[in-house]
Amino acid sequence: MPVDGVPPGRMPRHVAVIMDGNGRWAKRRALPRAFGHRKGVAALKGAVRFCSDHGIPVLTVYAFSTENWQRPSTEVKFLMELMKKTFTSEIDELHQEGVRIRFIGERNAFSSDITEVWNNAESLTKDNDNVLLNIAFNYGGRRELVLASRALAAKAAAGVIEPGDIDEDSLSAELLTTPCEDPDLLIRTAGQCRVSNFLLWQLAYTEIHVTDVLWPDFSDEDFKAAIVDFSQRDRKFGRVLEM
Ligand code: IPE
Ligand code: IPE
Ligand code: MG
Predict the structure, then answer these.
(1) What's the chain's average pLDDT?
(2) Three-state SS at 110
(3) CATH of the domain at 107
């Protein structure tokens, strides 16, 4: 189950991925960007299977950011359609593989044909416990923190809590990834060393692995390399390790 050479205790339990590089993958082949996004879906299927095969219980992927609305409207529209098609055509297979699906992101930006696909995928797979796949779609870490703050402020205004009671646990409880533990490992493909508004709170002590591999090319071997890299890190959480 664990990756070869990695002790079970050194396997990540929650992996987050910034699936970047679809456009560059297409550009290198002189293809429209849409081809890269399509190939990216196949890479995502591979990553989910990898988690299932290697006992990684939670995978959180960045599929569409709150900033991605600024792309050309044809690309935005294509991504919406691709997401809808993917979670319609692949849902039975994902369900059979015991994958639980959750969409994390603000939903009120979408029409009912999209939210229906999400609701169906979530309700069909809600009891699965092999891999939890969080799909961050219309997700932004800053937005998530704004919404969490609003929820806490509303509770305080209603007298349910005192402002002074707000602490790290109560704020965490309002986040979209709840009840998942924070990611152990963040993988970003396509070489950029930035978090691009992904999981800003949750990444506080996450190990970061950046690879030049473009997301559509991301293979089991690349996933393994990320895990081997992770397994060799000393996670100190601010402490001094015993010498
Ligand atoms: C990631 O690939 C997919 C989304 C952001 C939806 P990009 O589309 O950002 O690919 P590059 O960065 O242009 O290569
Ligand atoms: C981050 O990639 C968002 C997703 C992978 C969905 P971007 O391509 O949007 O990020 P930047 O623009 O390079 O920071
Ligand atoms: Mg990009």
Answers:
(1) 97
(2) coil
(3) 3.40.1180.10
